[in-house]
Amino acid sequence: MPTLLMCIDAPMQSWGTKSRFASRDTASEPTKSGVVGLLAAALGIPQDADEEIRNLASLRMGVRVDREGVLESDYHTVQNVPNTEGKGHRTAVTQRFYLADALFLVALESDDAPLLHQLLNALDRPHWPLYFGRKAFPPARPLPTHGLPGEHQPVTAQPLEHALRTHPWLENQQRIRNRQHNRDPYTSPTWLRTVVDADPFALDVELRHDFPLSFHPQQRSYASRAVQISHVALTPEMISRHTA
User: Fold this and answer.
1) Which residues are CB-contacts of 52 (< 8 A; sequence separation ≥ 6)?
2) Which residues contact 36 (CB under 8 A, 6 or more apart)?
3) How distant, in Å, are the alpha carbons of 59, 98, 197 from that of 200?
4) In the 8-state DSSP scheme, what is residue 163?
5) CA angle 181, 182, 183 (to 5 degrees)
6) How confident is the model over 204-235, as pLDDT tens digits?
7) Residue 214 in contact with residue 37, Cβ under 8 Å?
8) Given 3.40.50.300, 3.40.630.30, 3.30.70.2660, 3.10.450.50, which CATH number is that of 3-69+102-240?
9) 123 alpha-carbon distance from chain centroid
10) CB neighbours of residue 156 within 10 Å
11) What's the Cα-to-Cα distance from 186 to each of 2, 56, 88, 168, 232, rounded to whole Å?
12) Phi (first) and psi of residue 39, to 5 degrees
C-alpha cells in the first residue's frame, strides 16, 4: 500500500486527549484526532462533515518519534467565567501542557493512492491555516517530507512499517546530528519510538481514545483505537540521507 509521509516539527505542539475545563493535557506524540484535524483543515472540510471526518480517520496511521519533546506547562488567567447558572462571574486559572522541541514522522497508509495525492496537494496549499493544537503553534517547516528528486517523496509505494524503518531521519539541528555521527551504531545504538495503528485483538496493543467520529462543536465524539508501541533502530543510512 502507498504511504503519505508528513514531518511534524514546531517549537511547541499540543496534542490533547482528555482535556477538561481548567486542565489541558497533551499526548507525547501526535494523536489520530489531531492529525485528522490537520488534514480536514488542509482540505477545507467543515467541522460538522462527520462522514468525511470518519473517512480520513480510517487511514492507517503510524508515528516515528525522531526527537522526543519536553513536557512543559503554563498558566492562563481567564476573566469573567460564569458558574453553571450563568451567574457569579469570576477569574479562573487554567493549566495547559504542551511539548517543546519535539519532532515526528507521521505516516498515513491507504490503498487509495489518489486520496493520498489529494492530501499531499492540500498540505502544500492548505485551505485553512495549519497549527499543532493551538493557533500559536504553527509548523516550523512544510509538512510533506520532500526529499531529493526521485527519492524519499512524500507519497511512497512503501508500506507504512517499512517507511518508518527506513525513511531518513528528520533531525535538522546540526549539533544533534554531529553527536549522533560520533556514536557507534553497533555498540551504542539509538532507538526511535514508534506508535502504529494495530489489530485490536492482538495481545500487545494499547487503546487510545482519539479516533474522531465528529468534530461538531456541540457534540464532539471519539472512539478508541488500538496501537502498537515499538522502536526502530536509527541506522547510519537514515542519518546520512538527510531530507528536508
Assistant:
1) 40, 43, 45
2) 53, 56, 57, 212
3) 15, 29, 9
4) H
5) 95
6) 999 999 999 999 988 889 999 999 999 999 99
7) no
8) 3.30.70.2660
9) 14
10) 21
11) 31, 40, 64, 18, 14
12) -65, -40
What is the reported pTM?
A: 0.90
Q: Could you state, in order of their start, the residue ranges of all structural domains in the chain? A: 3-69+102-240
Answer yes or no: is pLDDT of 85 > 60: yes
What does the CA dihedral 76, 81, 83, 87 come to, rounded to 10 degrees?
160
pLDDT value at residue 185? 77
Rounded to whole angstroms, how far apart are CA atoms 9 and 25?
A: 19
User: What contacts 24+ positions apart, CB below 8 Å, involve 233-237?
Assistant: 233/185, 233/189, 233/190, 233/191, 233/192, 234/169, 234/180, 234/185, 234/189, 234/190, 234/191, 234/192, 235/185, 236/185, 237/166
Q: Which three cell numbers stand for residue 225?
A: 483505537
